[in-house]
Amino acid sequence: MVTTYKDAKNRNIGPSRVWLKNGQLPGLAMSRSLGDLVAVKAGTIHKPDIKHFKLKSTDKAIVIASDGVWEFMKNKAVTRL
Question: What is the CB neighbour count within 10 angstroms for residue 13?
Answer without folding.
Answer: 9
